Amino acid sequence: MSVSVDIPAAEHDALAGALAASEGVADQRGQIVQDELRPQLGFHGPDFEPIHDGFSGDRDAQPIIAIGDPERDVASFEDVLRGLDEGPVHYIIANGRQHGSLGAIVIGPATLYLGDAYRIRPQLGWHDADVMDPPYEFRAEGGGHYRESRGGMDQIIAEGLSGGFDHSVINPLICGGVVVFCHNDQLSKLLPYLDGSFKRQAVCIWRKKNPQPVANKHYRPVMEFYIHAWNSGFHPRGALDDLDRQIIAMSPRGVEKFGHATVKPDAVMDKIIRNVAGDSVCDPFMGTGSTGVATVKAGRRFTGIEQNPAHFLTACRRIAASVRAMI
């Protein structure tokens, strides 16, 4: 198996090797992983205890690998990729296959899946809240001053982040509420869909302190919208001052800092997580992990899905750092 992504060569080779070796993982619950897999994943414990059952289904799909003990240890993906001789990796989910995924990792209260949101999210079952920043639908081909002033636009186009998303990933049968970021042009389609799926909804705003100095034959992008929709029992939480429909925050330098063009500010995500109800949060379009960082800081359980291996690795590092800070 080869992995074609723009990540350091050493990590690329280690990931490819780990995935190839994972074909030797036992399919039956409780069965010890094969000896040749242990040193590669840093597993030295005498006993094997799966954290949970993983997935069942097509045995021709790629196997799911989960590393870490959420009760005691903090494991980051780079530790696995580097094949540490010793470290915090103790348990492996060895039974089950996952469609469209290269693997998963457990970091404290966070479980992260590398794969396709549309195939993985329905299999993960109930979460109290889905919080997502899916691809916007907007005109990204502007040139001249617009392209020069809007950093990361080439990356947005290359990663398919301007073509919108399939609304079916939002399913009221598997979440009590949802927060979804969207472009102005998506509101007319997304609001009716949410209105038919949830009991109530509110359009909220992130107002930028430092908007881009461009308009591209439109109004300046001084704000971004997110919709919070919920069913009974999952209404917005927080003190009165925390229930404003807008938050003012600086735009982060996502491309320079995290290699991602659409990173949301920590202040925005912290507020959103304070407002959503429940103990478990899922982000099907995790990116570099901003939702996960906010969820971990709030003391809740997080599940994230990201299909880009480079962004997935960044999310693992950020969330691992947040978990360590909480210990």
UniProtKB/TrEMBL annotation:
Q: Which domain of life is it from?
A: Bacteria
Write out the catalysed reaction.
a 2'-deoxyadenosine in DNA + S-adenosyl-L-methionine = an N(6)-methyl-2'-deoxyadenosine in DNA + S-adenosyl-L-homocysteine + H(+)
Question: Sorted alphabetically, which InterPro entries does this protein's record hold?
Answer: DNA_methylase_N4/N6, RM_Methyltransferase, SAM-dependent_MTases_sf
Q: Which UniProt keywords apply?
A: Methyltransferase, Transferase
Q: What is its EC number?
A: 2.1.1.-
Query: For the DNA methylase N-4/N-6 domain, which residue ranges apply?
Result: 196-312
Under what name is this protein listed? Methyltransferase
Question: What's the source species for this entry?
Answer: Sphingobium boeckii
What is the taxonomic lineage of the source species? Bacteria, Pseudomonadati, Pseudomonadota, Alphaproteobacteria, Sphingomonadales
